[in-house]
Write a structure and sequence with these properties.
Elements (H helix, E strand, L loop, with lengths): L1 H7 L39 H9 L13 H13 L4 H13 L6 H21 L2 H4 L24 H7 L30 H9 L14 H14 L3 E5 L2 H12 L5 E5 L4 H10 L6 E5 L4 H10 L2 E7 L11 H10 L3 E5 L4 H4 L9 E5 L13 E5 L1 H14 L5 H11 L2 H20 L4 E5 L9 H7 L6 E6 L3 H10 L4 E2 L9 E3 L1 H4 L6 H6 L6 E5 L5 H13 L2
Helix pairs in contact: 2-5, 3-5, 4-5, 7-9, 9-16, 10-15, 12-13, 19-22
The structure holds pyridoxal-5'-phosphate.
Pyridoxal-5'-phosphate (PLP) binds next to helix 10.
C-alpha cells in the first residue's frame, strides 16, 4: 500500500538513498534587509530548531533526526510557517518514533508526538498568519515562497521575475536551481490520520493538492511569480488566454446581466462576448476605448457587473485610462478587468491603477519564447477564488510542463521587455518618418490618441507596433513577403520578431467593408519586435519598404 511505504521511507535505514540530495542550507535572508520593502520579523519566523525545542526535543528526539538531509530540515521550517503539512508532522513523528525511547505502543506514542508537533506548528503558525495564508503544501515536493517573503529581499521587477515563487519556500530534491515539473494527475494522502487530513481539506481548514485539475506545485510557482509582479493576492493560470477571459466572464457576469467592453480588441474575445454571452441572456455595451462618457452612460442605464477591456488594445494599441474608469465603475458597483497582454506586467500595473483584475495571454510576452500557450488572471483572493471554482469545473488546466516553460520564460521577462520596448519605440519613430508608411499606431508616439494616458500609466509602451503601409492589399503583401527577419505568424511578444497582416491573418472571412467597421484596412501590418538587434531589424524593415 502506498501509504504504508510512506512511514518506511522515513526510517534511518532508508535515509541513505537521500544522501545524493544533500545540499547547502539556504542563505538566511531574515536579517540585513536588501531594498526597503517590509519583511517578516525574524522573531516570527519558525525554524526547525525552534520546532525541536518545542514539541519534539522534549520527547527525547535522538541526534539521528539531524542526519536528515538539510533539505528536510529546511522543509520543516517552511512547513511550520505554513501550518499546512501532513508529512512534516508525520516525518517528525516517524523519526521520534524510531529514534526515541521505545514506547509500549508505537501507535500511541506516534499519535502523541503528532499532537505535540502539530501544537508546536499551530502555535507558531498562528502568530505568523501572514506567512500562512494562501500556501499550498501537500508535504511532498515543496514549492514556492508563497508567503511572499520572497519578495521582501527583491526590490525590483527584474529580480522578482527571476526569483519570485521559487526562492526560500522550496526544499527541492537535489537542491536544483530550477523548479521541478511535477507530472502527476492526482495526489495521495499520507499515512497519519489520512482521513482526518482529507476532512480538513474538504472543510478548507488546510490546503493541500488533491487532484491535477485543482492545482499543481509547478503551476503554483508560475502563479506566484505573476502575483508578485502584479502585486496581486492571487493568480490563476490556465491553458490559454482565451480560457482565462472566458472563465472570468462566465464567473463575474450573471445570466441576464450586462457588461461593457471596447471596440478594439482581440477578435476571438469579441466573438465570445458578442456571440456567446447573449446565449446566457447577457447584454453588452461596446464603447470606444477613450469614451469615458459612453462608459458612464452605460453604467447609468444598466446594472453593469463588469467593464472588460484590453489596454493597450489589439491591434491598434488604444489605451484606457485605468485609474479613471476604475473609479467610475466602482462608484456604480461594477468590476474592472484589464487584459494587459500588450502591456506586460512590467510596463503596466493595472491593479495598482485601480483595476480589480488583470488578465494576460501568457502565450505572449510572459512566456516569451513562442513555445507555450497559457493565460492568467490576477487579483484579490476573493475574486480569484470565485473564478477558480468555475475553472475547477470547466477544466482548461495548464499542463505542468507548460507551467515550467512559463517559469523559465519569465526569468528573462524584464530583459526581453526592456529590449522590446526600446526597439519598438525606435522603430515606431523610424516608421512614422518613412514616406512609404501612412500611419503608425504606437502609444509611445505623441501622435497616438492616448499617448498622454499611456505616459501616465505605463513605464514602457510594449514591443508591438501596428502601421499602415502606403498601398493596397497586394502592396502590403509584397512588403510583408520582403521582410527577412520576422516570421509571418499570428502571435506576438516572443523572442522572435513576427509580422502579420490582420486583414488576411485574422479577418479574411469578412468582406472588406465589414473589416473596415473594425478599422482593419488591407494595408494594416502588426509587427511584434523580438529581441533581435535593433539595427538588423531596422535595416530589414527599410529594405522591405524599398520594395514597394
Ligand atoms: C490581447 C489578447 N488577449 C487574449 C488573447 C488570447 O490569448 P491566447 O492565444 O493565449 O488564448 C490574445 C491572443 O492573441 C490577445 O491578443
Amino acid at each position: 500500500m502506498a501509504v504504508l511505504s510512506c512511514s518506511f521511507t522515513l526510517s534511518p535505514r532508508v535515509l541513505n538513498p537521500y544522501s545524493s540530495f544533500e545540499c547547502r542550507p539556504d542563505p538566511d535572508f531574515s536579517t540585513a534587509p536588501i531594498g526597503d520593502k517590509p519583511r517578516l520579523a525574524s522573531s516570527r519566523r519558525v525554524t526547525a530548531s525552534s520546532l525541536y525545542a518545542g514539541g519534539i526535543s522534549s520527547r527525547g528526539l535522538s541526534s539521528l533526526i539531524f542526519c536528515f538531509p538539510p533539505n528536510f530540515v529546511r522543509q520543516l521550517s517552511i512547513k511550520a510557517r505554513r501550518n499546512s503539512s501532513n508529512i512534516g508532522v508525520a516525518q517528525i513523528v516517524a523519526a521520534s518514533w524510531s529514534n526515541g525511547p521505545a514506547p509500549d505502543s508505537p501507535f500511541l506514542a506516534a499519535a502523541a508526538s503528532a499532537q505535540a508537533a502539530a501544537a508546536a506548528v499551530n502555535a507558531t503558525a498562528t502568530n505568523d498568519g501572514a506567512a500562512v495564508e494562501g500556501c499550498i503544501d501537500n508535504g511532498s515536493v515543496q514549492i514556492g515562497g508563497s508567503d511572499n517573503s520572497t519578495t521582501t529581499f527583491l526590490s525590483s521587477d527584474g529580480s522578482i521575475t527571476v526569483h519570485a515563487g521559487e526562492r526560500l519556500g522550496r526544499g527541492i530534491v537535489a537542491d536544483a536551481i530550477t523548479t521541478p515539473v511535477v507530472n502527476t494527475a492526482t495526489y495521495f494522502f499520507k499515512l497519519y490520520g489520512v482521513m482526518f487530513h482529507v476532512i480538513l481539506l474538504q472543510e478548507k481548514r488546510r490546503q493541500s493538492f488533491k487532484y491535477g485539475r485543482y492545482g499543481n506545485p509547478t503551476t503554483v510557482v508560475a502563479e506566484e511569480k505573476i502575483s508578485a509582479l502584479e502585486g496581486a493576492e492571487s493568480t490563476l493560470i490556465m491553458a490559454s488566454g482565451m480560457c482565462a477571459s472566458i472563465v472570468m466572464l462566465m464567473t463575474l457576469v450573471p445570466a441576464g446581466g450586462h457588461m461593457v467592453s471596447t471596440t478594439d480588441c482581440y477578435r476571438k474575445t469579441r466573438m465570445f462576448i458578442e456571440n456567446f454571452l447573449p446565449k446566457m441572456g447577457i447584454s453588452v455595451t461596446v464603447i470606444d476605448p477613450a469614451d469615458v462618457d459612453g462608459l458612464e452612460a452605460a453604467l447609468n442605464k444598466n446594472k453593469v457587473s463588469l467593464f472588460f477591456t484590453e489596454s493597450p488594445t489589439n491591434p491598434f494599441l488604444r489605451c484606457v485610462d485605468i485609474e479613471r474608469v476604475s473609479k467610475l465603475c466602482h462608484s456604480k458597483g461594477a468590476l474592472v478587468c484589464i487584459d494587459g497582454t500588450f502591456a506586460t506586467p512590467l510596463n503596466q500595473k493595472a491593479l495598482a491603477l485601480g483595476a480589480d483584475l488583470v488578465l494576460h495571454s501568457a502565450t505572449k510576452f510572459i512566456g516569451g519564447h513562442n513555445d507555450v500557450l497559457a493565460g492568467c488572471i490576477s487579483g484579490p483572493e476573493k475574486l480569484i477564488t470565485e473564478i477558480r471554482t468555475l475553472h475547477h469545473i470547466l477544466g482548461g488546466t495548464l499542463n505542468p510542463n507548460a507551467a515550467y516553460l512559463i517559469i523559465r520564460g519569465m526569468k528573462t521577462l524584464h530583459l526581453r521587455v526592456q529590449q522590446q520596448n526600446s526597439t519598438a519605440l525606435r522603430m515606431a519613430q523610424v516608421l512614422e518618418a518613412h514616406p512609404r508608411v501612412r500611419r503608425v499606431y504606437y502609444p509611445g508616439l505623441p501622435s497616438h490618441p492616448e499617448h498622454e494616458i499611456a505616459k501616465q500609466q505605463m513605464t514602457g509602451f510594449g514591443g508591438v507596433v501596428s502601421f499602415e503601409v502606403d498601398g493596397d492589399l497586394m502592396t502590403t503583401i509584397k512588403f510583408v513577403d520582403a521582410l527577412k527577419i520576422p516570421y509571418i505568424a499570428t502571435s506576438f511578444g516572443g523572442c522572435e520578431s513576427m509580422v502579420d497582416q490582420p486583414a488576411i491573418m485574422s479577418y479574411w472571412d469578412l468582406s472588406q467593408a465589414e473589416r473596415r467597421k473594425y478599422g482593419i484596412e488591407d494595408n494594416l501590418v502588426r509587427f511584434s519586435f523580438g529581441v533581435e538587434d535593433f539595427e538588423d531589424l531596422k535595416a530589414d524593415v527599410l529594405q522591405a519598404l524599398e520594395t514597394i
